[in-house]
Amino acid sequence: MHSIRPYCVAGLALAALSLLAKPLLAAPQEAAVVNPTTEDLRQGKATFEGTCSACHGLDGGGGMAPNIQEVPFTLGMEATTNAITHGMSGGMPAFGGQLTAAEIRHVVQYLLTLKRQDNFKITGDPEKGKQVYESSGCARCHMIDGQGGDSAPDLSNVGALRTAGYLNTAILYPGSDLPQQRHFLESGGKLDYLFVHLVTKDGRTFDGTRVVEDSFRIVIEDANGNFHSFDKADLREFKEEPGKSLMPSYKGKLSGAQVNDLVAYLASLKEPQ
Question: Is the Cβ–Cβ distance between 148 and 139 less than 8 Å?
């Protein structure tokens, strides 16, 4: 569940505009990106995971920014290219100064391969799932409709942001789908929920998720929601551990039926549009 982050609105306008735009797939000026090579897609995937996945998820399925798996088909490839290059009002930053034209083209080509796919069948009962959510202590960290903790992502709209299959994986294997690239905050909020292990020069050990980091300092949040700030010069060990999470795995702690009910409940959480 830590995979759904409350950090970034980058891309909100992109998703909204995609609902209104007419497909431009057949436009002549876009013909050059319709038939990418295997190498084009490999490079596009690498650039996407290193630049875009922090907000949009490793599979483009959404996170702190919307699902963009079908954006090139709805917004059009030229408009998608322009959005990545120049940014969009509402929070989508411009990447034209960070990525080359070729890199952006490869990202758009890769996005064409990310179609919505979720073979997970929701068989649980949302009402029973709500009971599982409450009895399992999820609200100690997560918030829904203003109720609960704030040390983990707000789940009020998680059903609109993540597929049922993703939610099932997050419950059983938390941290397994977190972006593994290194990103930095531009302003406020949490980034990536990247797990880090720190040891100070006087031997104290700290584990937690990175909240903010610059060249000289890092702030982490531990499992109890406490914040710790460190000067890097005072650290003996600083280890990033992608794939780990403060969220415990519920594999073996919940029955298969309970997991299905919990997935059904979380999938039903969609704020009114």
Answer: yes
Q: Write out pLDDT tens, residues 157-203.
A: 888 877 888 788 889 878 655 543 333 333 333 344 678 899 999 99
Helix (H, G, I), strand (E, B) or coil at 117: coil
pLDDT in tens, 40-78: 999 999 999 899 887 787 888 776 677 787 778 767 788
**In the CATH hierarchy, which fold is given to the domain comprising 130-173+252-267?**
Cytochrome Bc1 Complex; Chain D, domain 2 (1.10.760)
Q: In angstroms, how far apart are the furthest CA atoms of the chain?
A: 64
Is residue 261 within 8 A of residue 167, CB to CB? The reply is no
Helix (H, G, I), strand (E, B) or coil at 108: helix
Q: Which two tokens stand for residue 107?
A: 């990202």
Which CATH number is associated with domain 195-240?
Answer: 2.30.30.100
CA angle 133, 175, 190 (to 5 degrees): 90
Q: Is the pTM of this model over 0.90?
A: no
Q: Are the C-beta atoms of residues 234 and 201 closer than 8 Å to each other? A: yes
